[in-house]
Design goal:
Layout (H helix, E strand, L loop, with lengths): L1 E5 L4 H12 L4 E6 L13 E4 L5 H10 L4 E4 L6 H6 L1 H21 L4 E5 L24 H20 L2 E7 L1 E3 L17 H9 L6 E4 L11 E6 H16 L5 E5 L4 E3 H12 L5 E4 L8 E2 L4 H6 L9 H14 L8
Helix pairs in contact: 1-7, 2-4, 4-5, 6-8, 6-10, 8-10
Length: about 325
């Protein structure tokens, strides 16, 4: 296969590129504007620096590289920013997303794997969350992702597009070999934030609320190793390339860990004392978010390999401890 990975210099996208190469899945081309991605995160694949909102560029890339399928990791994903700047999220995640798909279709590409989010569900009424749960996103980020999902379905009906939508919560960890990892600016994910304390880049880690209806009073989340996410994307790609129907799948380990548990595991893995500070709850933080991935396990034959949260953290620590400044290009 010839695969175009949009956002392939970012965190999840770069791990996808590496996984495709490790699995000899095909020839990979990366399209990334490097606004949040890193040139050093991409190796062994052609990196085209450009915006996926440039439909002519997308069509040209797909035609010149005989692209068979597109993987889209390029959307913006910060919940707080989406609240203060919703225009950016609708522009990048919906308007530019439409241009991306239009450009791909112009070149005859009709297979798309979309990296979505369980934020489309909003506040869950049942846990674990299944794909049949109602979509009630509580922020512009989730709404923009859901809007783009709707576009994909409309294009399937009208233009014969084949897609798979993969929804997940907390991507975590780094490549097991330590070659690439997570480097965001600003950082918002809990595990790298905790590890920044051990590196002397933060004095302490904030724990937002300790009175939730959970065993230790802190929020519980589902963490999925980034390589397990990559494996699910490749399985989904192979399925639709073989004629499988367009579907939506949740990706999760089905087990939740509290904020305090994550901090404690980080202490165990690093051997460092990590001071914590209790602060007020953040508005809109549900107590428990755990995804059911039974459909993915059944229909994709997806079996997460790195399910132990201590191991997930150890891969993150291996990366951050050897790359304390990330890729060094911020």
């Amino acid at each position: 296969m010839n695969i175009l990975v949009v956002g392939g210099a970012g965190y999840i996208g770069s791990h996808m590129v590496k996984y495709l190469q490790d699995e000899n899945a095909g020839t990979v081309t990366v399209l990334d504007n490097l606004a949040k991605g890193h040139r050093a995160a991409v190796s062994g694949a052609e990196l085209v620096v450009g915006d996926y909102g440039n439909g002519a560029l997308v069509a040209e890339l797909c035609s010149n590289n005989n692209i068979d399928a597109l993987m889209h990791f390029g959307a913006d994903s910060l919940v707080g920013e989406s609240v203060t700047n919703p225009a950016k999220y609708y522009e990048n995640n919906v308007v530019k997303g439409k241009t991306l798909i239009d450009g791909a279709l112009e070149a005859g590409v009709k297979h798309v794997i979309f990296s979505s989010t369980a934020a489309t569900y909003g506040e869950p009424t049942e846990v674990p969350i299944t794909e049949d749960a109602a979509n009630r996103p509580t922020n512009p980020y989730g709404r923009s992702k859901l809007a783009f999902e709707g576009l994909l379905e409309s294009y399937r009906v009208a233009y014969g597009l084949n897609y798979t939508i993969l929804r997940y919560f907390n991507a975590a960890g780094a490549a097991p070999g330590g070659e690439i990892g997570e480097d965001h600016s600003p950082e918002t994910h809990i595990i790298p934030l905790v590890l920044q304390v051990t590196l002397g880049q933060r004095e302490s880690i904030n724990i937002y609320g300790s009175d939730y209806p959970t065993p230790d009073g802190t929020c519980v989340r589902d963490y999925v190793h980034v390589n397990d996410l990559a494996s699910a994307h490749l399985l989904a790609l192979r399925r639709i390339m073989d004629g499988g129907s367009s579907e939506i799948f949740n990706l999760g380990n089905g087990t939740g860990f509290s904020v305090r548990e994550i901090v404690d595991y980080c202490r165990q893995v690093t051997g460092h004392a990590i001071p914590e500070v209790l602060v007020e709850r953040r508005a809109g933080d549900p107590a428990v978010l755990i995804a059911s991935s039974k459909r993915a396990q059944s229909m994709l034959n997806w079996q997460p390999k790195y399910t132990a949260v201590r191991y997930i953290i150890s891969t993150a620590w291996a990366w951050h401890s050897t790359h304390p400044q990330g890729y060094g290009d911020n």
